Protein 1
Amino acid sequence: MKKKHIFIYLTIFIFSGIILRLSVSKNDVPSDCYGQLTQNYGKKKLAVLITLEFLQKNKTGKLNVSGNYQDENGLNLYISRQVSFNYEEINNKLIATSESVSIKPNDTMDNTWLGLFFADFLMRENRGIVLDNYQTINGDIVYLSDGIPALYCNKMH
């Protein structure tokens, strides 16, 4: 698996009746987003919850990832990280650059293992990620990585 993007192979959200369309303006960025990932790499498994908060005033945000990693030998690790980032929107894309990566005290995940599943954006400062953004009929936004839904952002929060 490539570690090109942090959100590759995220679980497709089941939102029956959502029709996506292009063209999200700068004013449409919702403040709260969430996602869920369950990913396998051989007999290794990672299951995480993802939350994202945008601060439109200064084009910054915070990404939180927490969850568990298990392997075939019974190794069980926990991940709990927060990435502060700057972002901009260009041509229906969210372009984010990590400013800081905070590893919480209960995080036991080694970057070597984490690198099997995620790009450097979750591990190091000054790393970037690009996500396509699509607006739903009701004004919410879905961010995609390599065509796979990664985050669902509810405009009503």
Protein 2
Amino acid sequence: MDRTASTQPIAAPVHHGPDGTPYYLTPAPPLTAPPALYHPAAPAPVHYGPTLAPTAVYLPAPPPVAEPAPARDPWPARLLAGGVALGAGGLGVGYAVQAVAAAAGSIGGLAALGVGAYALAKTTGGNGGRGGGQGAVNVHVNVTNRNR
């Protein structure tokens, strides 16, 4: 059956978008001329000038960049930063002194324990006197009384 000879209108197909909006697709109108292919225009030739040796190319020095001067001296910020730095330094020194004192106390305590242990080791004798249990001591006493 030939559909081109039909007199009934053809219903346009409907395409629905992501939000549900209907889009009616109609057939394209007939072309009045054959389609032409797109050919971009040729780029214009670029003239670079005379070629130079790489050693002959010198770039100009960049202009000096002037630092903008502050509108006023930020002395409160500098004072605050200095105070924070001094406070942090003081805390650091305090912690360092505390650590040194703790280490000195520990070393002193260990030295005292060592001296005490040495003293106990040297005086563990049965006679309780000096000499540390090295035996009896010979004592010779000569007493004369002339008034008798």
Protein 3
Amino acid sequence: MLIPVILIVTVVIPLLFMAYRAATRSKAAGEHPATEDAATIARTGQEFADAEAYQAKWREEEKRHQPDTLL
């Protein structure tokens, strides 16, 4: 009865912790690649700004059409 508890504490928990750390490091490395330069960052920012402008335009159009539709 005591041996499984000792195995879990000494082996399984540290392995789970190391797997978690490896997963978070690889995720962080994938989100911000080292080859990202200033032009790429600026282009990404511009794409987000364009998307926000499109979304605002879409919301305004939906407000105009909202009274026509009833659930």
